[in-house]
Design a protein that fits this description.
The structure is a single chain. With 228 residues, the chain is of the alpha/beta class. It has one domain (2-218): Alpha-Beta Barrel (TIM Barrel), CATH 3.20.20.70. The chain has nine helices and 14 strands. It has helices at residues 29-36, 47-50, 57-66, 78-86, 106-116, 145-152, 175-183, 198-206, 215-218; strands at 2-9, 12-17, 21-26, 42-46, 69-72, 91-94, 99-100, 103-104, 121-128, 131-134, 139-140, 158-163, 188-192, 209-213. It has an eight-stranded parallel barrel, surrounded by six helices. A two-stranded antiparallel ribbon has the order 7-8.
Amino acid sequence: MLIPSIDLLGGRIVQLVQGERLAVESDDLDGWIARFSGRPKVQLIDLDAAKAQGHNNALVTRICAALPCRVGGGIRSVARAQEVLAGGATHAIVGSALFANGTVDLRFAEELAGAIGPERLIAAVDSKGGKVVIHGWRTGLPLTAVEAIRELEPFFGGFLYTHVDREGLLQGTDMTAIREVKAATTRDVIAAGGITSMNEVDELDAMGVDAVVGMALYTGRLTLPRAE
């Protein structure tokens, strides 16, 4: 399944190359909501919250009222995860906060699962150069995505795997890396990072993996198919 993504930065919808360079910027929030209407899943990330430089809470709530959004960005506590879900998100996506001192923070993962339930939690595990990266992809850790996912599996209903090496480049994703992640868990897997064509979306769907698409949709490289 294709999952369209909405990234918010400074009150606007954006798409960044490698998490840094601004490539797409839009104030047409209602227009993109209309385009994504009818999709069973939408990914919504508050980049300001993720970067600890503010938030877009009002916009997140507005979008969640219109679309079935799984929301991430700056979720660093149980209270914040609960707040996001209470605001209309279908799932809370938790990333950097799941790691501490170079390894998986199992205590926090267990606390989240106990308070909320794995079925409404998605762990974001991002990989660059074969290793997990956190803090906006600026901090590398000495473990692989597969290692992290195996440790986190008991506490999350799904995993969002972003192959950062391809993110925003419109050059296709890394199917081999995604297959390794899929083989490492019995939980749902959602893949992101460079997915550019419906052929890739279909290939991922055949292996039971959902595909998050951003840049290709916003630049017109990929046309959104009819809702499934």
